[in-house]
Amino acid sequence: xxxxxxxxxxxxxxxxxxxxxxxxxxxxxxxxxxxxxxxxxxxxxxxxxxxxxxxxxxxxxxxxxxxxxxxxxxxxxxxxxxxxxxxxxxxxxxxxxxxxxxxxxxxxxxxxxxxxxxxxxxxxxxxxxxxxxxxxxxxxxxxxxxxxxxxxxxxxxxxxxxxxxxxxxxxxxxxxxxxxxxxxxxxxxxxxxxxxxxxxxxxxxxxxxx
Amino acid sequence: xxxxxxxxxxxxxxxxxxxxxxxxxxxxxxxxxxxxxxxxxxxxxxxxxxxxxxxxxxxxxxxxxxxxxxxxxxxxxxxxxxxxxxxxxxxxxxxxxxxxxxxxxxxxxxxxxxxxxxxxxxxxxxxxxxxxxxxxxxxxxxxxxxxxxxxxxxxxxxxxxxxxxxxxxxxxxxxxxxxxxxxxxxxxxxxxxxxxxxxxxxxxxxxxxxxxxxxxxxxxxxxxxxxxxxxxxxxxxxxxxxxxxxxxxxxxxxxxxxxxxxxxxxxxxxxxxxxxxxxxxxxxxxxxxxxxxxxxxxxxxxxxxxxxxxxxxxxxxxxxxxxxxxxxxxxxxxxxxxxxxxxxxxxxxxxxxxxxxxxxxxxxxxxxxxxxxxxxxxxxxxxxxxxxxxxxxxxxxxxxxxxxxxxxxxxxxxxxxxxxxxxxxxxxxxxxxxxxxxxxxxxxxxxxxxxxxxxxxxxxxxxxxxxxxxxxxxxxxxxxxxxxxxxxxxxxxxxxxxxxxxxxxxxxxxxxxxxxxxxxxxxxxxxxxxxxxxxxxxxxxxxxxxxxxxxxxxxxxxxxxxxxxxxxxxxxxxxxxxxxxxxxxxxxxxxxxxxxxxxxxxxxxxxxxxxxxxxxxxxxxxxxxxxxxxxxxxxxxxxxxxxxxxxxxxxxxxxxxxxxxxxxxxxxxxxxxxxxxxxxxxxxxxxxxxxxxxxxxxxxxxxxxxxxxxxxxxxxxxxxxxxxxxxxxxxxxxxxxxxxxxxxxxxxxxxxxxxxxxxxxxxxxxxxxxxxxxxxxxxxxxxxxxxxxxxxxxxxxxxxxxxxxxxxxxxxxxxxxxxxxxxxxxxxxxxxxxxxxxxxxxxxxxxxxxxxxxxxxxxxxxxxxxxxxxxxxxxxxxxxxxxxxxxxxxxxxxxxxxxxxxxxxxxxxxxxxxxxxxxxxxxxxxxxxxxxxxxxxxxxxxxxxxxxxxxxxxxxxxxxxxxxxxxxxxxxxxxxxxxxxxxxxxxxxxxxxxxxxxxxxxxxxxxxxxxxxxxxxxxxxxxxxxxxxxxxxxxxxxxxxxxxxxxxxxxxxxxxxxxxxxxxxxxxxxxxxxxxxxxxxxxxxxxxxxxxxxxxxxxxxxxxxxxxxxxxxxxxxxxxxxxxxxxxxxxxxxxxxxxxxxxxxxxxxxxxxxxxxxxxxxxxxxxxxxxxxxxxxxxxxxxxxxxxxxxxxxxxxxxxxxxxxxxxxxxxxxxxxxxxxxxxxxxxxxxxxxxxxxxxxxxxxxxxxxxxx
Lengths: 210, 1253
Description:
The complex is a heterodimer of chains A (about 210) and B (about 1250).
Chain A: E1 2-4, H1 9-33, E2 42-47, E3 50-55, H2 58-76, E4 80-88, E5 94-103, E6 108-110, H3 112-131, E7 145-152, H4 156-162, H5 176-179, E8 184-193, E9 198-206
Helix pairs in contact in A: 1-2, 1-3
Chain B: H1 3-12, H2 21-45, E1 56-59, H3 67-76, E2 80-82, E3 92-94, H4 100-105, E4 110-112, H5 115-123, H6 152-156, H7 173-185, E5 198-202, H8 208-211, E6 214-216, E7 222-227, H9 233-237, H10 271-276, H11 278-300, H12 308-315, H13 328-334, H14 352-359, H15 374-381, H16 383-408, H17 414-430, E8 442-447, H18 450-455, E9 467-470, H19 486-496, H20 523-529, E10 537-540, H21 542-546, H22 555-561, E11 566-568, H23 572-587, E12 593-595, E13 600-604, H24 606-612, H25 616-631, E14 635-640, H26 643-653, E15 658-660, H27 666-671, H28 683-691, H29 697-702, H30 705-712, H31 714-723, E16 741-745, H32 754-775, E17 777-789, E18 806-819, H33 822-836, E19 843-855, H34 871-882, H35 892-911, H36 928-937, H37 940-943, E20 948-951, H38 960-965, H39 968-983, H40 988-991, E21 1009-1012, H41 1038-1043, H42 1046-1061, H43 1063-1078, H44 1084-1097, H45 1118-1121, H46 1130-1140, H47 1146-1152, H48 1167-1180, H49 1186-1201, H50 1205-1221, H51 1225-1246, E22 1249-1250
Parallel strand pairs in B: 1-2, 1-3, 3-4, 5-7, 9-11, 14-15
Antiparallel strand pairs in B: 6-7, 8-13, 8-14, 9-10, 12-13, 16-19, 17-18, 17-19, 20-21
């Protein structure tokens, strides 16, 4: 059993890679499940040994990739607290917020044999949960859009403003309107606890969507 | 023997002494003579009447007309004349003057002036003797003597014909004028009461020193001046309606001589001086002022004689007997530090503590309700409070009767016997027995306009006139106060379109179907109304009702409707005695009585009727005749097959009638009844029903049950459905369970500072404590209700000291333990109060309510209703004496403080004057008064028992200093338990009784567990802490450890060192742990409580719960709770490994890491385990224990903190399914409670609440 710390650079990157990969799949899936885009632009793929839907719209894919690319440094440094996929109605009022709450244990202990398969199992469970989440959520009004927010820990925003990971794709401080949702109901979807990562996914849903 | 001789004899033996056999013979002879003479006299006179039937007079001393003439008059008019006074037979003493010695001998005799007889004869009927009374002592609680009811012309006529001033207040015009001009000069408003006393109301108090005081009338009149101003703390403190009181003598603590500058007014003498002068004036002032003096002495020492009677009589400004006598003694009296205001009701200044408060009370600080004693004083004066407490008292009375009968093995029902005899006579004649149909029959006995009929019992002149019972006796007009805006309030109430006044109709339920106040004044009248008295009418006679007067109406308004409305003041003493008499009468028939209020009761006569074989009508008639005979008031009786019908029948029976609603008539009868006549249909529901097009029960019958349930909820809907068909299955319960105990005060609440509000709340809590103790209950839910001035409403309400238009707010808190401790309640309430963030200045009313009651096991007397004393309770109470040991962890703080509070409260109780009749402390029941004392002496562990079972830790675990600090007996028990354990570890278990809770009686004896009665004072700061079994070091949460204060850390470290050193002890301990495991459930209550207690003292050590102590649930399998259980988490394993290698430096090493403890529920971590636990919990127990619920809540909270919402969600959903399926409704309540708590935590953490579908 190897014990790694956060200082171990490789390790942070590993976690960030795994997580971002997962987030990408998750975002696509959410967009599909929540009918943000017409189902025609999605293709069935296989990830974590389960079928997932992935958009084949290049711009959308690029946007998601870029976003996650910018999230990754934060995750590496354990500075991201939450990654939120916000689905907004036509008036840009959020109707649903898929919150990935991330916390990484300060003390990482990796049993290399079981690590990957274990984490994969957990992520798969989460993906499956997303794919059936429409059962517990109300239908969204037509014409929804989405955005991705990151809640950072401490003063990470400072750095984010300085360093643009991708040129002309800066982080901006989210509108209060986008962040805040009134009369929200919280629906926990899945919690995973692994050695390298503890993450839970819940949805905040607006009580009256229309 | 000549008559003169008799006279002479009479004057020698003045009638007060005892008599021998000779006298008895003589008296009877005289009576015979009188009877013989009477017809002759009548013949001679030609006119005769019987207006004085039942009256027997005794003439004392010189009278005009003379005694012989009076004797003749009595002969002519059906009265009796006694030459010798006999207390039992003589009803009135006729005199115009009595020597001092005789006045002193007077007790309750009616001493009347001869004019009573002459005037009565002139009037052709028996007038009320009250106006003709000679002496104050006779007035007792009644103020009617001063007011000139009925015959103002009579009483306002100066009576120069009598050399001695009459007690009727004759108010000369000159005095009025002089006072008026005097007040005009001082720019103050004057309110002259025409009823004999005059009170001057000052709006501004600027010149108070000059004017405040009593100013004596020219000859024999007394006017009470009443300075009133916002800056005057004394006035605002009162509870009475200052504008409607007949007299308001106001006593000030200041002794500065005040000069009253009107004609013959005299300067006020300082108190001491007046005392000095008492003696001389005693002799000079003659008989009357003499009596005043004595009373003034009694006032000066109120602690000695707090009785109502004295206070009241004394505070009555009375005319001094000789015009020349100065009013000095009276003034001195009024200058005493007792301040009393009278309101037609009565006042006491019961306790010395109260006095202290008053003297420390400075003007400028509006002391409002903020003062100690104020609240209990308020409640001992509030008339509504009295009436409401009576009901309980009568309930207790009934149940006391029953228990007495049970004890005696049978009772004699005198009334029943009488009826039986009557029946026997009847049936021997007619031979027709009543049909022996065994059909349930409920009698609803209700006195007819109770207050009025009691009030006019002794005032035959008022019979048949419109009479209202109210505190106002004036013309019904008062000056308007600045800041008040009565119009606005009237409009507001008008806009509410509701019978605001109905809220006061506590007593006369026959009023319920009264039409809504369609006569609400129009705007034009409003202006006029502003000047009308706002005194409410508590009850009015049927004649007044015909004129449109309603109960609860303001007197001023009623006076407009019915100009010749007579007012009668409250006479609580009489109400009480009449009500008691009524209940005694009822109890002479059966004991199946449910006391509904002071004047109405339900009787389950089913068995009685069968036994007697009489018809309900016969029974009702007998009861009514009995009541009429014994109380002099009429009662109506409604009969029906159930409570509902009986009550409805009463409405038809009224007034003074009876009605038997036969089952075959029910349908027709009920169809025409308005829905508002159904119980439970108040204004809001009737308006809702009206919107549904329902006005009568017949309409209501058309609605389907599902519709009703949809509109009103399942229970109310069903009740309505049944009621409107005349179905009612409520039994007549002589013992009624109380749902809540509360105290509310919304009169004169004007705070300026938060501290005042806080101390008020504390006092109110004490009042609640008193009531809880009185009822022998403890409650768990505490609700704080606050009335806050509605924004925009006038600052000063129309009613002086009233609450005006308000918004109501309520907050409640659920305590961990049921309590009756005022301090604990106060602490919680103050927390709630701060959470409400109110402006104290805007507060107009405060109420405290304690719900979720359960009987306290400690009620020593065990009487009264709602005290289900079972064997279990007895067992519990005895346990401490049986168990060989006592648990040391009880901190001495906790032990002593409740006892001190107890002492305080009982002192408090005793301070309340025992003579104040309707207050709860002066329970007429024998034994209750002892209660307070008994509580004082009872060791508190009996009084406040919790029934916690806690293991006695092994000697090594006990801090010697703690042990030494414990009370001796407890220490001895602890030590004893150690000895026991050493000697016979196995047998000790048999001695101890397993803790029993209502929900789960755990089987089997416990090992090494003992029952401890911990005082219920979790809020107490405890210095010494409970010695918990030290958990295995591996179980210590490092970050919790780190968070501990330095000292604690060191202590723990050394403890662990000790532990390792004393290996044997560890062994012992671990064996103890194993023992425990065999009976895991025995530990539960203790664990929950201990942990919570501990948690309160320390910031976070609840995390220690990871120790094996954490076992919670019954049915928990040993394996599950075993401390050795390894959780399937690497994190966990590491945790366990880490600290075991280190000792003292552990905290440092550990605190570096931040591993979260995995939330566990009773040791269970995996969801499946938790599910099993929960299932076992819900299915095996019929009623959840609070500890367990809290444990679950704690677990859920930890889950939220642990960011494991998914599991939380699953747990909640699982519980929802389990608990809502459960047949017991407590489980769904438990779930709701859990969910509410969890939602709060989630809301705090995530800003939104869980969606539970």
